[in-house]
DNA sequence: AGCCTACGCGCC
DNA sequence: AAAGGGCGCGTAGGCT
């Protein structure tokens, strides 16, 4: 195993260590190095498997390359170390390898893993690409912001590996009791629970026709024959239907979804040793949100959250940033009225009091419409109120929408950049504004809604990532036991010995403040993290 | 059989 | 006048 010596630099010698994990351990304890590697999702599990400690900091070349390419308007170029190095050398770029799950790649800087040509020395390439990335960061419009973004993204990569390995505490017994209560005893051989078959029969009786309740193509005509004309079989539409089959179908949908998506088969696939271990994909969403592979980790139904139970003597510290996106809009736009509302704990209530005659639901709809670009129904009217009372906030989102409609790109607070619209999804026809309903125009408006939301969602992700990185560092300061076990957009769960839960809760609050300061500077907007110390996730709401 | 899209629903 | 953002993943039903 090789490691670049401290005084090495691009031309310096590399050192060879028979036991790299031990050397990494020694250096991590001796100082606070920032480890530079091609991709944390490959190198870090490999090191942890061999006894390396948790590492404080890293620079993930692949993730940083993705951020820089996006910022430079080259979203679709390959991001691997080999591709970045080939661009530096003026060689043809290799395609990125297909994303895949964990593997047992036995070496850290193996050329083929990163699409390096056979004659390239991986360590030389890594050093050269890292240096070039530092120059590109320094040359970006806001170097401090881009540096922070790259550091937070890289820290996120460490947290993602750790969370995927630690897993979310999951009680098979509680889960089983829930399933049995809803679906009856587990049928043998993966068969459909009797409750579902029974509901299907009752639906057929009610409709007077044999239908598969899972098939909208069969259900719609069956309802039509019964005199009920529906545009779709979506739940919100069925809820307004008097026909007895509607209620039965709604119950069927609810239960069959639990069975199919989070039933016994799901648990056998994803829960081992009392832990649900999804694979987090950092940078999996262009806005900077994480994705997951397998297990649907970002959609754990509320109904099943009672199965998330702390170990004996432990607690879950559950923290979520309420109303994050409107607070982000307030902080970024500097809108005086919205910032005043965002200086309070319940932003929507403050907004309602200040501008919507105390009607909180209408205030919420108006604000969401501004951020999502909704104008149908009541939203259009509420939007007019928003525009009059919060002009700076509306100007920000509407400017982002216009940029997108014209084919331009927008950036988050820290510089994460929206992709340019692809030619097949978008053609600019602003020269022909009278043709209001043309497919091209609709596509442009759709892209405008995307960029409108991007500036908010991506800046919220900036904050969340900075918060996660700060929290991870603060938890390490408490000790080895408190562990991040879940992260979902604006929510984190820490699993900790009960006696440390108070310290963990304090660390959460401090991390939120730190993220606000780092990402948005000295703004009055609050980003409150609601923190609950519980034994069971379901008790946190 | 595998691959693709449409639909629908869970989460934020 | 009208225009609701981002995901993962299940089944159905068509295709090769």
What does this entry look like structurally?
This protein has 541 residues and is an alpha+beta fold. It has four domains: 2-166, no CATH class; 172-268, Taq DNA Polymerase, Chain T, domain 4; 277-324 and 461-540, Alpha-Beta Plaits, CATH 3.30.70; 325-413 and 420-457, no CATH class. It has 20 helices and 13 strands. The strands form five sheets. The protein has a four-stranded antiparallel beta sheet. Strands 5-7-6 form a three-stranded antiparallel beta sheet. α2 (40-49) links the parallel β3 and β4. α6 (143-166) crosses α19 (439-478). It is globular, with a radius of gyration of 26 Å. The two termini are 49 Å apart. The model is unreliable at 5-11, 101-107 and 427-436 (pLDDT under 50). It binds a DNA duplex (12 and 16 nucleotides) through α9, α11, β9, α16 and α19.
Quaternary organization = single chain
- Return Rg in Å: 26 Å
**Count of helix runs:** 20
Give the tally of β-strands: 13
Structural class call reads alpha+beta
- The number of domains is 4
How far is it from the N-terminal to the C-terminal residue, by CA? 49 Å
Low-confidence stretches: 5-11, 101-107, 427-436
Strand order of the largest sheet: 11-12-10-13
Biggest beta sheet attributes: 4 strands, antiparallel
Helix coverage percent of residues? 40-55%
How much strand?
5-15%
- Mean pLDDT over all positions: 88
Task: Tell the overall outline.
Answer: globular
